[in-house]
Amino acid sequence: MFYTTDTNRHGLAHDPFKAIVAPRPIGWIGSKGRDGSLNLSPYSFFNAISDRPKLVMFSSAGRKDSVRNVEETGVFTANLVSRNLVEKMNHSSIAAPYGVNEFELSGLTAMQGELVDAPYVGEAFAALECRVTEILLPKGLDGEPSENIMVLGQVVGIHIDEAIIRNGRLDMALARPIARLGYMDYSEGSDVFEMIRPKAP
Asked: Is residue 105 within 8 Å of residue 149, measured between CB atoms?
């Protein structure tokens, strides 16, 4: 099958776009408002985009609480979602009013960042402390801005639970990271295999 996205006439029960761009890591974003309120929200549009410097981005459909907080404070955390925390992650996605603490709602420990004034998930196997570098409104071919707001941040500090370190590496079979697929589907990334990049002839 083939269809053009301007009409989006795919004939399926649900739009397949996000199912094709999968799996996607979950950006479990911790932030703090200027009023001191804490927020924890998962974002399915999230990824690392640079190693030097270390940059990550998350993209929010509209100006949600996380975006409001990072606009006010310029900092956030990104927390690794592992299999043992997936139900708590899902609970933190509740559409709660501004100021409601999703850490408390989800039964999670809000830890104060070492370098940024933002909370991270104490139970997470890994967490990134980030400072905002850019907040962008992506544009389409027609020049009109997307409904999404993209936040880019530089990672300035990294927390790792030594329980997932084996032989000097993070062992994904131990971490059991969760990825977002399409629709309401998720996958677990513990079925790990290795491939060595071939050398040029």
From this structure: no
